[in-house]
Amino acid sequence: MTPATRSGSRRVLLVTPRGYCDGVERAIQTVEKKGAVFVDESEEVPEGNIVIFSAHGVAPVVHEEASGKLATIDATCPLVTKVHKEAVRFAKEDYGILLIGHEGHEEVIGTSGKAPEHITLVDGPADVANVEVRDPDKVVWLSQTALSVDETMGTVDALKDRFPNLLSPPSDDICYATQSRQIAVKQMGAEADLVIVVSSQNSSNSVRLVEVALSVGARAALLVDYAEEIDESWLADVRTVGVTSGASVPEILVEGVLEWLAARGYDDIETVTAAEESIAFSLPKELRRDLRRRRLTDQSARFCPH
Prior knowledge:
alpha/beta, five-stranded parallel β-sheet, 38% helix
């Protein structure tokens, strides 16, 4: 029991790691170096401009639509690209691919587009009974990278009950950042009366954090985009608030939540650290080439003045 608990003071358990994963950080760095206007369709981009594909990845048809009239930079997270390559490889080997994920999610759309005739979406354990495959002895499972580890393995176990010869991917598809953030919430969740996950409602990895918090004993867990969305009624009889954030959330929004809580007496902040993340992805190759050309041009200008 901590001194904060004994004295009855209000405290915040701040989770680490949280916020940007390296795949998102890589995409943001790409955008910052290039500047960007967000669009939903490649047709919205004027001919001759550059289009950057998001960290979630896109289907091959989007690449095809952009090729020719647009220069492209692929900022797809390397871990998502890994799943794409697995889908292509298993499709070439004529496997039925059971993709565990949530229908309509950008990443699922992108992965499904890599091998649409071979991929069947499985949206959680309850969906397993509906799965139909061409050859039950030649099936493999892959997954969306931002899922709950526990739910995914529950789905895999249910699939193995139906398809005993189900093949697993060479390595776990759920990304290291998703796993470490869920582990951190597990460590914090049982001590928290309320868990606040800073993120938008449509963020798959953030919804999973809410589910994980509730599964380990948090009395309540809720998503908010900004501090202003917190309802003071949520704090009734709450002594301990857990705080984390989704993989696409800038730290300034978490700081806003901490300031909001501090103004209401929750000013004792303890850090809950689950893991140290040391993975760093290199920038997209197209951007690296561009930066090298700029450096060479700058060097030439310095050493060969006109």
